[in-house]
Amino acid sequence: MKARVLFIAIAAIVAALWLHHSVTRLNEVATAPKKAQPSQEQWRAPSAQKLGQSGVSFTTDQPKDAFAFVARSASKALGGDGKAAYQIAAALGKCLPIKAVYGSEPDPQAAFSKEWANRVVPEWVVNRARAALADCTGFLNGDAFSGLPDRPGGYQSIKFWNDLAYQEKNPVAMVAHAAATAQTVLINARGNEDQSGIDSMQTDINAAALSGDPEALYRIGQLLADGRIGVDALEGPAVMIAACNLGYDCSSSNERVFGACVAAGTCQQGETYEDVIGNGIGANRYAQAYEKAQELQTAIEQQSTSTIQTFVQLRAKTVN
Asked: Fewer CB within 10 A of the terminal residue: the chain, N end or C end?
């Protein structure tokens, strides 16, 4: 039974990755000529260099030893580090299901091998599950939150850390909150528009965009690419291009961008998400989106709030 729980959880992750990749391509990829590649000078925008010199790391890759990371980061997160709180939530999202399955096993590795031995799944799925078990081993018998002040319900709560990251105004957490709000607004919009929900989304997105965080910008672009949410068809591509220019990993090694083909090792070598956008909207519209992206980068560099907000506008009313 426990093996079935873990298998379903991993299958759901895999399906979500493929769905993310498929939906993104359906939204943005149509048959069109490949874009002309901008020069290296264009790709290295001055704003990207200046943000890179700020000493702020925007990466939110999950650590390999999730337990050790959570143990050393929990106090920082409680002290106001929103990024650490967001990463802790992500680590718990990966590791708590594994703890539920293997936490009571005397030999988790042997239990894993037995449970997966006869499953008819691609080898990369098994390897992915094995790596996750290795990353989360510390959670099986240890308490990463020992020494923290007592709180009702303890600290093994994904929601607690996500909420904390949002309260601390972590840009990626703010966009994730906006995305969750978008689902509520779209689902509930049946003639009675949830304007307060749209206003809340806009506030979160404005603040996240102003931060210049590349991952937050990429996620904003994903939201705006949804025709039910974005105002201008070029908004989403432009914001995602800006995210790539400002340092977000838009290569085919980034699973958030390219989906499960990264884990499976089947992504097209050397492809970037800029290529995907260019192939989807055509060379002329890509040039327009790229110009808008550079304008957005300049606005972020200059911290021009009013200008930035023109690039990330949501529809006043959602489209069902």
From this structure: N
Pick from 15-19, 146-150, 247-251, 315-319: least confident: 15-19
pLDDT at 32 over 70: no
How far apart CA 114 and CA 119 sit, in angstroms, is: 10
- 23 has pLDDT over 80: no
Beta-carbon contacts of 250 under 8 Å, excluding residues fewer than 6 positions away, are 218, 240, 243, 244, 257, 272, 273, 274
Q: Stretch 235-262: mean pLDDT, rounded?
A: 92
pLDDT of residue 188: 61
Query: For residue 245, what pLDDT is reported?
Result: 95
Q: How far apart are CA 242 and CA 43, in angstroms?
A: 10
DSSP three-state, residue 230 = strand
Please give the Cα distance from 291 to 283 (Å, whole number): 12
User: How many residues does the structure list for the chain?
Assistant: 320
More confident residue, 64 or 197: 197
Report d(CA 158, CA 143) in Å as an integer: 15
- CB < 8 Å & 24+ apart, contacts of 93-96: 93/158, 94/62, 94/66, 94/132, 94/135, 94/136, 95/66, 95/67, 95/132, 95/135, 95/136, 95/139, 96/139, 96/156, 96/158
Q: Where are the domains of the chain?
A: 33-59+170-320, 62-168
3-state secondary structure 1-36: CHHHHHHHHHHHHHHHHHHHHHHHHHHHCCCCCCCC
Q: Do 128 and 59 form a contact (C-beta atoms < 8 A)?
A: no
Neighbours of 19 (CB within 10 A): 12
Q: What pLDDT sits at residue 194? A: 62
Mean pLDDT across 108-127:
91
How far, in Å, are 97, 105, 117, 136 from residue 102 at the CA level?
A: 9, 5, 16, 10
